[in-house]
Amino acid sequence: MWRFTLKRLLNIILTLFFLSIFIFFLVRVTPGTPEMVILLNRGGEIGGEEVVDIKTELGHDTSLYNQYVNWSKRMIRFDFGVSYQSNLPVLDELLSRVSDTLILVILSLAISIILSVIISFYACIYKGTMREKWIGNISIFLSSLPNYLIGLLLVLFFSIHWKVTPVYGDGTWLHYILPVITASLPLCASFVQLFRQIITEVIKNLYFEAARAMGLKKRVLYTKFLFLPCIHSFLTVIASHFGSLWGTIIVIETIYAWPGLGSYIIHAVTARDYPVVIGFTLIMALFLMLIYFLIDLLLRYIDPRQTQKDGQIKW
Amino acid sequence: MVRRIACFFPIICLGFLVFTIIMGILFTPYDPYEVNTQEELTPPSSEHWFGTDHLGRDVLTRIVFGASYTLLFPAIVLLLSSLLGVVIGLISTIGRKVDLLTTAIMDSFSSIPSFLVAIIFAGLLGPGMVSTLFAILVSWWVHYARIVRNTSMIIRNQPFILSAQLSGTFGVKLIRKHIFPNALPIVRELIFLDMGTIILMISSLSFLGLGAQPPIPDWGGMILDGKSYIQIAPWVALIPSVFITIFVMLFYFMGRRVQ
User: Fold this and answer.
1) Rg (CA), chain A
2) Which stretches are transmembrane (chain B) (predicted)?
3) I need a surface site. Which of A304, B39, B230, B243 has the fewest CB within 10 A?
């Protein structure tokens, strides 16, 4: 266990190192150098003496290696510099917006997990009936719906036609309803598909058949012999969807003009606000890798058999 | 018999839709780019089957002409990125040190969700088709590289590789003759399954304003245009998104059949 932890932490550091190199060069390869962007934001003229001043100010007049070393030293201290647009520290800008997005992510994830677990167990218990078939078909249909279509339809019916919820913005709890539904419908549908596969695999096991043959109470049978063995695989599926959920949340935030991280990042990317983009990418990578790491630790705690498998994989 | 028809149903549907799209390109009386200020936002009628958008352009004509941007372009992008992924995945099987390096690169690319990578690349390279291509290429090759690498590792440990090595096949020849053909079926399955996802990703990029730029009749861009008029003219945004949904679903079913 300790070896695993150490290995994974080392891996995270290595990954961040490679990622930082990529980002460092990406900024220098893309059209529009940082000096230009700063000049444009300050309202200066391109091609004047000021470019050189800004270059010395940023430390871009030294060698590439020196630049990278200085830059990465600042990155390690979480000092991402100031935003070109607002001249405020990037970390503060990001942190002030992350809570709005995090609420959306957590709410939609929680709702879709709860719903999909209930629905997929229902489908598997009533296997072979029409209900199960319909659940399968509807989940395929919903999981291939693009989230902007869901968003547009929801806005059209709930906000414009029936006037139940506000069209966009945030503030009251009513504002949360449509974005959360938009995020969780496709997520829930794809969870149901994957969970159903997992549950049918577990049902095939002989021990489940034996437990059923013993005449256990249905409650005990389904919770202890069906739900518990599934948890491990469920967590893996959820972890694999956690990252992509952040991507969909960005689209959803633009649909509903949600003042969160997503709309801010899109704005920063199109305005070439390099410190914000770099800071966001590195923090996001670190955050997601730590989450995956914690989930892996949890999985190992739940199912220690995985630890034994580590030694068997050889190159 | 019914089951056999059901098996080909997605392919028949796709063929039919592609046929109608070609017919539409040949026989439409309207120009997808021509602005007509007299017929702004007219609802669907017998003249304009799907209505007109905010510049008076026929939505059906734009959908028909935009099909190549929304369907053909993702296919090209997907093929290129799978090619890149397969090559890198196979390279990682050469040796232990190469494998460590490529895995580290793969890890750093997959540490951020691929859609976020695509957004960052497309945004920094400036909106347009070429930057969309690069964005998807950069964000999607990792999936293929990882799958190819993992299957090749499993293949490597099988006895027939050992016998090939014993008979004097090493290095590139071993990979080309023995590992690559055995890893190919999985890649083929994945390409069919991913087609819908890539269409969704590219149209989402256009929807965010980072993809193909107006006046190109890309479906995602049409949804973005129509979003502002959703209250008075919902068809402008809804019809392209319904079309995207239909195609994504057909590709999904086709992928399942291939599986």
Assistant:
1) 25
2) 7-27, 71-94, 115-142, 187-212, 232-253
3) A304
The whole model's pTM is what?
0.87
- Residue A310, class by beta-carbon neighbours within 10 Å (0-12 exposed, 13-18 middle, 19+ buried)? exposed
Calculate Rg over the CA atoms of chain B.
Answer: 22
Per-residue pLDDT of A96-127, as tens digits, reads: 889 889 999 999 999 999 999 999 999 998 88
Mean predicted confidence (pLDDT) in A122-143: 89
Summarised one tens digit per residue, pLDDT across range B145-159 is 999 999 988 888 889
Contacts of A289 in chain B (CB under 8 A): 111
A116 and A62 in a common domain: no
- Which pLDDT score, from 0 to 100, does residue A46 have? 63
A243–B112: do the CB atoms touch at under 8 Å? yes
Task: Name the nearest CA neighbour of B61 among B34, B40, B38.
Answer: B34
What is the interface pTM, i.e. ipTM, of the complex?
0.86
Select from B85, B50, B249 the least CA-distant residue to A139. B249
Residue A251's domain comprises 97-313
In a domain, residue A9? The reply is: no
Are the beta carbons of B124 and A269 separated by less than 8 Å?
yes
Take residue B230 and report the two structure tokens written for it. 């959703």
CATH number of the domain at A233, please.
Answer: 1.10.3720.10
The pLDDT value given to residue B148: 93
Nearest chain A Cα to B96, which residue?
A: A315
CA distance, residue A246 to nearest chain B CA (Å): 8
Helical axes A274-302 vs A261-270, angle rounded to 10°: 140
Residues A174 and A202 in one domain: yes
> Closest residue of B to A19, CA-based?
B108
